[in-house]
């Protein structure tokens, strides 16, 4: 009996029961039995991450296999129809009146969908960011930068946290990919800072590593919320506001509206996480160690110079994405190949980076689930249900309710951009019908598109990279995410509302 209680499968039973229960509920109007199975499995995945004693990738692999075998995806037929996979090989009446068969393979087509996330650009961007981090660490460049950073602002752990926040804020207006910014540039420096503080980066859970990781991840999200150019999904919010509400919400309006709540949140994150995690660093000994390590590093090496040149070119290409027309993922992929060709990285370095491969697998799997939630109408059903449920509410109540539901709906997604694409239109449309103040709803959705990423360790590539380092156990990341989100929501619904009232936005 004791062995049974301690088995991994028993720890997964709550997730299995939840998934099975939801999957077998009657489908409400707007959903199908296939949609319910997908929703059930997704809910089971979230529960499994909280309770099951299995690796995240194992949970996701099991979910994808279950959905494949139950044909719970949307397949594409040979003539371009998009249908539920369980309808493959069934017949339908065409426009000409003739009966035809849906030409697709229910199981094979489902599997094609299950593995489609491995060609997603976000997954590849995260994957390459890990290897850029390896190069920064291997050459000693990250250690050099981190030692200087700690030397300047390292009078306290909170001071180091602020240094990371400042780095994110400085880069956010110019790099429109939060993953490229956080994963490709800031993350390697953060990891080197953690190592400089005497943390064994392979040991797993650690309060100092956890503090700097979650501060960096949150700073990445908050800096993304501050600028319309801060992340890829932000321009979609601005465009939808223009098309649905008829208002212009460009760079200046965005910064003006987001400035007070976003900057105040950034200012409070390091002390909040310091109180929660209590990281202990001996700063007297640290100054001695910093000087010793700087002496060991010696002068700048040729490899560091080659790395700096490569990263500088990649930074120019990332900043100039709108002008050069080169996708940020392609830039990152090019950087990895160049680093191998100039012998900064070896192919063994790529193969042995198990964190990169593991994160690539589970993030790609989450992306598939998020895309299928939209394809099978789950996200649209949520939006329609909202507008109906708030029909008798006042415009202000409707605005705040829509914003809160939008914030917590991030639990359904593994990509901030996917969240924006799926929900911004339906939520703005519902707000328009309900008479919500346009600028107020727009700034709330604009802020929450990025801020809501704190809720899970899989919300976006940059967060996934930090969470994958295991300084904070994944179940605890959810708890800390709720604590941070509570602080953000309090700021937004107090100081933020006061600020927007002064601006005359409602």
TrEMBL record:
Protein name in the entry? Sodium/sulfate symporter
The record's GO molecular-function terms, alphabetically, read: transmembrane transporter activity
Keyword list (alphabetical) reads: Membrane, Plastid, Plastid inner membrane, Transmembrane, Transmembrane helix
Q: What family is reported? A: Belongs to the SLC13A/DASS transporter (TC 2.A.47) family. DIT1 subfamily.
Mind telling me which InterPro entries this protein's record contains?
A: CitT-rel (IPR030676), SLC13A/DASS (IPR001898)
- Lipid bilayer topology: Multi-pass membrane protein
Where is this protein localized, as stated in its record? Plastid, Chloroplast inner membrane
Q: Which organism is it from?
A: Coemansia spiralis
Main localization category: plastid
Membrane-spanning residues: 9-27, 39-67, 211-234, 254-277, 330-347, 403-428, 440-465, 477-500
């Amino acid at each position: 009996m004791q062995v049974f209680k301690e088995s991994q499968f028993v720890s997964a039973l709550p997730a299995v029961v939840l998934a099975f229960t939801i999957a077998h509920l009657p489908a409400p109007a707007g959903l199908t039995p296939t949609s319910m199975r997908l929703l059930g499995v997704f809910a089971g995945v979230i529960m499994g991450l909280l309770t099951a004693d299995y690796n995240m990738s194992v949970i996701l692999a099991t979910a994808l296999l279950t959905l494949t075998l139950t044909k719970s995806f949307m397949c594409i037929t040979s003539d371009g129809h998009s249908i539920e996979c369980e309808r493959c090989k069934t017949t339908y009446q065409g426009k000409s009146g003739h009966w035809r068969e849906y030409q697709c393979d229910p199981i094979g087509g489902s599997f094609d969908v299950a593995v489609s996330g491995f060609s997603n650009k976000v997954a590849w961007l995260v994957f390459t960011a890990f290897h850029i981090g390896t190069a920064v660490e291997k050459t000693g460049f990250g250690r050099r930068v981190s030692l200087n950073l700690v030397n300047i602002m390292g009078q306290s752990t909170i001071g180091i946290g602020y240094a990371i926040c400042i780095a994110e804020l400085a880069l956010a207006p110019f790099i429109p990919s939060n993953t490229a910014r956080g994963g490709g540039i800031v993350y390697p420096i953060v990891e080197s800072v953690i190592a400089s503080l005497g943390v064994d980066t392979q040991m797993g859970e650690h309060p100092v590593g956890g503090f700097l990781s979650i501060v960096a991840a949150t700073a990445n999200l908050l800096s993304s919320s501050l600028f319309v150019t801060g992340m890829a999904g932000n321009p979609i919010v601005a465009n939808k506001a223009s098309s649905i509400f008829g208002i212009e919400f460009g760079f200046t309006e965005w910064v003006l509206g987001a400035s007070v709540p976003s900057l105040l949140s950034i200012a409070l994150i390091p002390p909040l996480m310091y109180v929660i995690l209590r990281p202990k660093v001996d700063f007297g000994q640290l100054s001695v160690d910093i000087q010793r390590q700087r002496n060991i590093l010696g002068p700048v090496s040729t490899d560091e110079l080659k790395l700096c040149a490569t990263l500088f070119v990649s930074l120019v290409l990332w900043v100039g994405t709108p002008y050069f027309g080169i996708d940020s993922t392609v830039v990152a992929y090019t950087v990895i190949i160049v680093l191998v060709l100039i012998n900064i990285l070896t192919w063994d370095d790529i193969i042995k980076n198990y964190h990169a491969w593991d994160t690539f697998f589970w993030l790609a799997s989450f992306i598939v689930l998020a895309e299928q939630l939209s394809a099978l109408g789950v996200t649209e059903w949520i939006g329609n249900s909202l507008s109906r449920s708030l029909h008798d509410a006042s415009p202000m109540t409707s605005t705040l309710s829509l914003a809160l539901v939008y914030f917590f709906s991030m639990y359904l997604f593994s990509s901030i951009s996917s969240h924006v694409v799926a929900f911004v239109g339906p939520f703005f449309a519902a707000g328009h019908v309900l008479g919500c103040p346009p600028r107020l709803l727009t700034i709330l959705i604009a802020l929450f598109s990025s801020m809501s990423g704190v809720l899970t360790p899989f919300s976006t590539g940059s967060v996934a990279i930090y969470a994958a380092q295991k300084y904070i156990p994944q179940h605890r990341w959810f708890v800390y995410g709720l604590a941070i989100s509570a602080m953000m929501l309090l700021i937004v619904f107090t100081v933020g509302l006061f600020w927007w009232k002064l601006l005359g936005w409602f």
